[in-house]
Write a structure and sequence with these properties.
Blueprint: H1 57-86, H2 88-91, E1 95-98, E2 101-104, H3 111-121, E3 128-132, H4 137-141, E4 148-152, E5 155-156, H5 163-177, E6 180-187, E7 190-197, E8 199-202, E9 205-209, E10 216-218, E11 222-226, H6 227-232, H7 236-251, H8 254-258, H9 261-271, H10 289-305, H11 313-323, H12 332-335, H13 340-358
Parallel strand pairs: 9-11
Antiparallel strand pairs: 1-8, 2-3, 4-5, 4-6, 6-7, 10-11
């Protein structure tokens, strides 16, 4: 994925029907004795019924799983993008220039899903834009989903199994040294050149966790939200609370202070797989109440600056805690207990932000 540079066998029915000739012969005897008798017509032979090829249910399951994963990723990136773009001032040193779009090819997925990515998503050997960050320079320049990447600053971009990593090696220096890049795209079969302004944004990689456990993690660089948490966050505002709070933990250096970065990073790497290892590992270390309250405050400001409504934050965290008691290891409420003090602090910050918005004051904590 480049926000932060972060075909199956076709099911077919048998189409060949074997045609069987049906000669209708009338057999007559010329003898006078015994009397001439008609021989019955031969019964017509029906053509064999075409037999469909057996369904590859495993392939169908992979395609369905991929579609489901893409829907969840799209929601995650759509909500994360404005938080990242709107908060470089609050992310402090955790910012960098970004392209403002995501690009993948079929090899961006594990080998068992590469063919499904080609069939379901239309991805092939060439890197292709899969989403564009709202408010980014790429969006302003006219980059669109479906555009294929040809070259950057006249340097051809690679294709094939290792294209993402190789493209990163080409793009990283260009992004670090310039305020814009010259991008050659292929759209609808025709090449086109765009000058794309780079976007200053928070430099956190946002990842989907493939587990139904209600959880979210931050390792100092990455932020992961699980499938279970996406289901628990009923609205985009609620998902923004989760994302922004985890980003705030990174900004405030809580992972480094607790020395938990390596263990959380290992957890994220595992859950980012399509088939995570479900073997029991040592539970992660819980955050402190002070860290949670500080991250809640900064996170609410980050969400508000990105245009999300913050007045429902206290109710969301309260509902999450009621539905998901902290007994499950590494779940959100096990690592970040939702206490009465925390809810009181969240309500206070929400009111503070609403007052600043009403008075048109800068949204800074």
């Amino acid at each position: 994925m480049f926000y932060s540079f972060g075909t199956p066998r076709r099911l077919r029915l048998c189409s060949t029907v074997l045609a069987v000739a049906l000669p209708l012969a009338l057999l007559l005897s010329a003898c006078e004795t015994p009397p001439v008798r008609e021989t019955p017509l031969a019964a017509p032979v029906a053509p064999p019924t075409p037999v469909p090829a057996p369904l590859d249910t495993s392939q169908l399951n992979r395609e369905a799983a991929l579609r489901d994963m893409v829907v969840l990723q799209d929601r995650l990136y759509r909500v994360a993008a404005p938080i990242l773009v709107s908060n470089p001032a609050l992310c402090r040193s955790n910012t960098r220039n970004q392209l403002g779009f995501m690009a993948k090819n079929k090899y961006s997925y594990s080998s068992e899903y590469a063919n499904s990515a080609q069939k379901v998503l239309g991805l092939d050997e060439q890197l292709q834009v899969t989403s564009v960050m709202t408010g980014s320079g790429a969006a302003t320049a006219g980059v669109r989903s479906g555009d294929k990447l040809v070259a950057v600053n006249d340097t051809p971009l690679p294709q094939g199994p290792n294209a993402e990593h190789q493209a990163h090696l080409i793009l990283a220096p260009a992004i670090g040294e310039h305020m814009s890049i010259n991008l050659t795209l292929n759209r609808g079969g025709a090449d086109m050149a765009l000058k794309v302004p780079l976007t200053r944004a928070c430099a956190f990689l946002v990842v989907l966790g493939n587990t139904e456990q209600v959880a979210a993690y931050a390792d100092g660089v990455q932020v992961m939200v699980t499938r279970g948490m996406l289901s628990a966050a009923k609205s985009d505002d609620e998902l923004a609370f989760v994302l922004a709070t985890e980003m705030a933990h990174n900004v405030l250096g809580h992972v480094k202070k607790q020395r938990t970065g390596a263990s959380i990073a290992a957890k994220i790497d595992n859950l980012a797989r399509i088939h995570p290892d479900n073997d029991q590992h040592a539970p992660l270390k819980a955050s402190t109440p002070e860290f949670d309250i500080a991250a809640d405050k900064l996170g609410l400001y980050m969400a508000a600056r990105a245009g999300f409504a913050v007045e429902g934050a206290s109710a969301f965290w309260s509902r999450l805690a009621s539905a998901n008691p902290p007994g499950v290891a590494d779940s959100y409420t096990a690592l970040h207990p939702v206490t009465a003090n925390r809810l009181t602090a969240i309500a206070k910050v929400s009111n503070e932000i609403k007052a600043k918005q009403a008075a048109r004051k800068p949204l800074t904590p």
